[in-house]
Design goal:
Strand content: under 5%
Low-confidence stretches: none
Number of helices: 4
Structural class: mainly alpha
Distance between the termini: 43 Å
Mean pLDDT: 92
Order of helices and strands: HHHH
Length: 74
Amino acid sequence: MVNQLEKMISIYNRMIREYLNRELRPYNLSESNFYYVLFICDQPGISQKQLLHQLFRQQSIVTKAVNYLIKNDW
């Protein structure tokens, strides 16, 4: 039962990610970049350090994502 539930959650997660990637492609965003934009819009002025703690990511990953967004005028 648990394995079946994990499998269904995994499939659903993949479907959502694929859908988001397809819909966001014209805006030069991926689903992961989209979540950064959501966090930043929800909390304008948030620092990278605060973003890092809210997203539970390593600093290098957050820095790369933020630099990518800046480079692409987001």
